From TrEMBL:
Chain intervals for the UniProt region annotation (Disordered): 176-251, 300-340
A single GO cellular-component term on record: exon-exon junction complex
Name of this protein: MIF4G domain protein
Gene3D superfamilies linked: 1.25.40.180
GO biological process, one term: nuclear-transcribed mRNA catabolic process, nonsense-mediated decay
This protein's UniProt keywords: Cytoplasm
GO molecular function, one term: RNA binding
Composition skew (Acidic residues), residue ranges: 197-211, 237-247
Compositional bias of kind Low complexity: 308-327
Predominant localisation class: cytoplasm
Annotated localization: Cytoplasm
Amino acid sequence: MVIDNVFEDIRAGLEIHSPKLAQRRIAMAKYLGELYNYKLVESTNILNTLYSIISLGVSTEEGVISPLDPPDSLFRLKLACVLLDTCGPYFTSSTSKQKLDYFLIFFQHYYWYKKSNPIFSRVQDTHDLFPILVDHMYRDCLANVRPKLKLFKNLEQAKEAIEKLREKLYPQLKELTAQQQQQQDADEANNLQPIPEDSEFDDGASDDSSSEMDRRPRDECQDDEEAANQANTTDWTENEGMPEDDVVPNIPKISEKTKEDLEFEQMFEKMAQDSYQERLKETIKPNTKDIPVPMMVRNNKKSYEQISSASNAAPAPSSSAAVSNDSKNPASGPINFVLM
């Protein structure tokens, strides 16, 4: 979820060119590089983001100004440099190294495309030369990622390197483009200009057809109109007597039930009724659950000697109390004690 939000935020920053989001975009690029360092994203995700930075909304055609990447905006160079400085040195596998080398060719082309813009030239006398801080950031970034990389000196060298890379990776692409160019030239040669006589002939044919329509007798037109009106009235009267449900087309008809189906339904209903009656006759037994009685352990148990000593230490009862007790309990005997 967090990784998806990071990619979406970087993409939204590329689609919205606003200086207010500059600090946030730099922080997101730095954060994405740290995610790769901690092995939370793949190298393909980083490369896709880098290619998006230098290509999304970028116009390399002369005279075409993109609102997402104006000629005087160098923020995307900073964004790519921050991401490369953060995670570029950690592309250690052979495939990731090779893919990063391919990207650096396109990155240098983007750099020289920006730097060679007339807005940063002395000829235009704009007094807005290419910032030296951005130049140093670009060179330090490439020196950090590839210390032995030979940098291009102008835009033409970058274009030549891109063409060589395309021929290396896609050798059949050049042949296809040549064939397409030949086919396009042949199509243009075959597409001849329309002859004026054809247009005149078409105009004459249309005039003849219109004149023939005018020559038709009025009686035939009236007969056609009456036949059309009669057909409409018959259709309307037929549809008027029919209910609205019958007008709906393509309604599948319900197939009639056979004798076997009716017998099966009767037997099934009888079986269900018998089962229901048997269930009503059954007595519902309540669920008796065994409730365990907790065992109370008493720590104040007394031995027989303690009980006998307590009875001997008690004072002797008075004579009246003894007489009353004797009268109540005429058969006095030994008292049985139960040890709890």
